[in-house]
Write a structure and sequence with these properties.
Blueprint (H helix, E strand, L loop, with lengths): L6 H35 L5 H33 L6 H21 L8 H28 L1
Helix pairs in contact: 1-2, 1-4, 2-3, 3-4
Length: 143
C-alpha cells in the first residue's frame, strides 16, 4: 500500500506528467500539420520531419496511456475506487482510446491521399482538444 502522505505529491506528478504529454502531442500535431500543408501544396517533403513524426508518435501514445493508468492507480490507492471524478475519468478514457485508435490508423496510411490520413488528422485534433479539457478538469481536482 502507498503511504497516504505521498498521494498529494503523486497527484501533482500525474498532472505535471500529463501536461508534458499534452505539450509533446501538440508538438507532434504541429509536425503533422507541417507535413500535411506541404503535401497539399505539392511541395517537397522534409523527410527529417516525417521520420521524427513517425518515430515519436507511438512513444507519445504509450506515454499518454501510461499517464491515464497512473491516474487510475493514484485515485484507487487514495480513495479505493476509480470513478470518484467521473468527468476526468471519462475524458481520460476517451483520450487513451483515441491515442490507441490514432496509432492503429497511422499503420494503415500508405498513399498520399489515403482516407486514413484525414481520420488520423481529425483524431489528432480531437485528442489535443480533449487534453485541454482534461487539464482544466484536473486543475479543478487539484485546486
Amino acid at each position: 500500500m502507498i503511504n497516504k502522505e505521498l498521494i498529494p505529491y503523486l497527484k501533482l506528478a500525474h498532472g505535471s506528467y500529463n501536461t508534458l504529454i499534452m505539450s509533446l502531442l501538440i508538438y507532434q500535431g504541429w509536425l503533422g500539420l507541417r507535413m500535411r500543408k506541404k503535401r497539399k501544396a505539392g511541395e517537397r517533403q522534409d523527410f527529417k520531419i516525417i521520420k521524427r513524426h513517425r518515430r515519436n508518435g507511438p512513444i507519445f501514445a504509450i506515454m499518454g496511456c501510461v499517464g491515464f493508468l497512473a491516474g487510475i492507480t493514484i485515485i484507487y490507492f487514495d480513495k479505493g475506487r476509480i470513478f470518484l471524478y467521473p468527468l476526468h475519468f471519462i475524458n481520460g478514457s476517451l483520450i487513451a482510446l483515441l491515442l490507441i485508435s490514432t496509432y492503429l490508423i497511422s499503420k494503415k496510411i500508405r498513399a498520399t491521399e489515403s482516407p486514413w490520413r484525414t481520420r488520423h488528422f481529425i483524431l489528432g485534433i480531437v485528442i489535443i482538444c480533449l487534453y485541454l479539457i482534461q487539464v482544466y478538469l484536473g486543475l479543478g481536482i487539484l485546486l
